[in-house]
Amino acid sequence: MPVAEGTPQTLYDKVFQDHIVDEKLDGTILLYIDRHLVHEVTSPQAFEGLKNAGRKVRRPDCTLATTDHNVPTTSRKALKDIASFILEDDSRTQCVTLEENVKDFGITYFGLSDKRQGIVHVIGPEQGFTLPGTTVVCGDSHTSTHGAFGALAFGIGTSEVEHVLATQCLITKRSKNMRIQVDGELAPGVSSKDVILHVIGKIGTAGGTASVIEFCGSVIRSLSMEARMSICNMSIEAGARAGMVAPDDITFEYLKGKPLAPKYGSDEWNKAVAYWRSLSSDPGAKYDVDVFIDGKDIIPTVTWGTSPEDVVPITGVVPDPETFPTEAKKQAGRRMLEYMGLTAGTPMEDIVVDKVFIGSCTNSRIEDLRAAAQVVKGKHIASNIKRALIVPGSGLVKDQAEAEGLHKTFLDAGFEWREAGCSMCLGMNPDILSPKERCASTSNRNFEGRQGAKGRTHLMSPVMAAAAAIVGKLADVRKLSEYQGSPHIEAAVNPEVAPTAKAHPDERIETDDTEKEMLTDQPEDSSPQVNTSLPKSPGGVGLPKFTVLRGIAAPMDKANIDTDAIIPKQFLKTIKRTGLGKALFYEMRFRADGSENPNFVLNREPYRGSRIIVCTGENFGCGSSREHAPWALNDFGVKTVIAPSFADIFFNNSFKNGMLMIALPDRADLAAVHAEAVAGREVEVDLPNQVIRAADGRVLCAFEVEEFRKHCLINGLDDIGLTMQLDDKIAEFERKMSRETPWLDGSGYLKRKGMGGKLAVKAAPVPKTNRGEDKKEPLEW
Ligand SMILES: CC(C)[C@H](C(=O)O)[C@@H](O)C(=O)O
Ligand code: SF4
Q1: Does the keyword section mention Amino-acid biosynthesis (predicted)?
Q2: Of 18, 110, 488, 531, which has the most beta carbons under 10 Å away?
Q3: Centre of ligand 1 from the C-alpha of residue 242, in Å
Q4: Considering the entire predicted model, what is its pTM?
């Protein structure tokens, strides 16, 4: 619902409202995007779509690209170019493709030889590209990180990346407002990572579904920008669309002197700060969900299972699944313990660790490294630790750390000092866990296989990971004698120690790494069962029209089926949208020797050819923004998933590919459809009438679908083309933005090209498919 004039507004309402270009009666909104970050994994197919349709990038001045996911973190001393530096073929192809695309489309790019290269979510804030009150998107779920600045920042799928590149807008709808207030104070040794792990433990990984979370309260206010970023970063693990913190003096202090922020002290800076100050939530603003947490209840927290909600205080023990409330939860818990190689009742501090990873977009900033260095100073990693990696989030973080001598502390303690990138957070580069290896990790996801096939991840804060490296087991940092104080809080109250994007020595200290590393979890290009008889969907124009889908539905009973499970990371290295059916549910569908797992539902009759999945567990599609997940389902032949709830980005991505996701929150409705699936009888999904029928024609239940999505599905519409027809409105919006918030037009090295607010690149509707695939699809399956 639009917010009525005079109604108290939340921070989210205000930023959202200020970016509406157009609003339809059904609540579908065309939202203007101020900042677009691009990386190599989720962009190739989007650029390909633009090329095929002859479209341009509308705002190169608002777009910034880098390579981060695939890049090796070994020494760059011998770096000549990316093509010779990256040994693994698919990783190299993705990075080289990005380099070609940024050249072709005139986009600013930080490559491996640039000190500003790093993880997208580290470099955006570091450069002042991320500013309060902006809308920020990236084809990456952890875009939520940028919400720490009071920006509305969220992850999008590749089709949406293409949409933003072409139009600088996104089709979306309002989210719910959720407030998480953390009051009181954090005890020494407790950091922002513990706050967010504690929050996720409390509300669950679906707790924030369909919401934007505003983090507030005295604990949040006291935190530094970097600590706030760690919290907003993991909003996505709480199921939320985004996380936000109202901008304040700590925010403005951080932004002073950043290359792309308005010049400190200028009229523009003063005007910007006045606007930024107006963004906090009004007294009396309404929230759909309110959560209160007392800071003193938070103690250093670690995960024990394979979902970020499986948390326990370090002082606790491995939980006993037999005490879990439902049979489904018990089963899931038993599976997790088996996967993690843990026994119920084991004290967490007795769990022996093999590897330690300090890095990722959650915890690879200078304060994280300072805090970890403080713990390891003068000590050495335990003898059982096979590798302990420090991976700075960007070249500038690395330089800053070296200027402070932190690298020496780490090297003396036995850590590896690496180059910037995503690294072992998801192991698309050679930094991976071997099967059954256990890692103390500062990253954000502990899904099965996340850091390497069969690897075991425990999430925690940088000081806790540092402590684990020293002790050789999961450890309570508060017990390490020299450790005192909470580094994040110190940094917040003392801006003097805040890092700066400018300060770096010219000389680069190189990692000396001669170790030969290989990707060991890259699957063979085996082609297991692919459902070739079904139509492939190219997306965009030429999408198959979805009206009625009839068939046997495959039952699934798992909650939190994450996108890493739908398609593991090793298959994300393609630059195509097609051919991913073979990778669908890879770890569940196939055994280690590549043969089919006979217990997996899609390997059993009558479900082999199912085009519908009925899942009784909550939160289908949680985790990453990879559009590869719906592409894999689609390629396999699955066009509809019915579940009690879905993760937002996955839900969106599916519709962009002409697939219908049906949320059935009513358990009785779901049970009725599930019963038909279990019995192996056909069901019929009737989109025009919004009902699901049994094979005998009985209506099992009705379902909800937004008008605009329904319209696009039934008519197979390309929403980029639709948006381009609104070019006048978009241009008018841009003129207004240039007048009122001129600092949002590209500045610094991102100069806006064009005269007097007139765009150099004009969007125009393109009469052919945006994917260059003019296939005529059947009207119905
Ligand atoms: C590759 C990308 C789509 C993915 C994401 O969206 O999160 C990655 O960054 C991750 O962390 O799994
Ligand atoms: S979560 Fe990991 S893989 Fe994803 S962007 Fe952050 S560091 Fe990279």
Answers
A1: yes
A2: 488
A3: 15
A4: 0.89
d(CA 223, CA 524): 46
Answer whether 240's CB lies under 8 Å from 232's CB. no
By residue count, the chain amounts to 781
DSSP 420: S
Domains defined for the chain, CATH in brackets: 33-173+247-280+494-541+719-781 (3.30.499.10), 303-480 (3.30.499.10), 548-717 (3.20.19.10)
Distance 563 CA to ligand 1 centre (A): 9
Closest C-alpha among 64, 263, 44, 35 to residue 151: 35
Segment 297-351, tens digit of pLDDT = 999 999 999 999 999 999 999 999 999 999 989 999 999 999 999 999 999 999 9
| 362 Cα–ligand 2 center, Å | 8
Contact in structure between 599 and 557 (CB atoms under 8 Å): no
Atom of ligand 2 nearest to the CA of 364: 7
Percent of the chain with pLDDT over 70: 88
Cα separation, 270 vs 706, whole angstroms: 42
- What's the complex ipTM? 0.99
Q: Looking at ligand 2, which atom is closest to the CA of residue 445?
A: 1
Q: Is the pLDDT confidence value at 136 over 90?
A: yes
Helices H, strands E: what count in the chain? Answer: 25, 26
Give the closest residue to 101 by CA, choosing from 170, 154, 162: 162
Ligand 2 centroid from CA 443, angstroms: 8
- Which two tokens mark 736? 């207004």
The residue whose C-alpha atom lies closest to atom 11 belonging to ligand 1 is 624
486 lines ligand 1 (CB under 6 A): no
Burial of 289 (0-12, 13-18, 19+ CB in 10 A): middle
Ligand 1 neighbourhood includes 647 CB (under 6 angstroms) = no
573-621 tens-digit pLDDT? 999 999 999 999 999 999 989 999 999 999 999 999 999 999 999 999 9
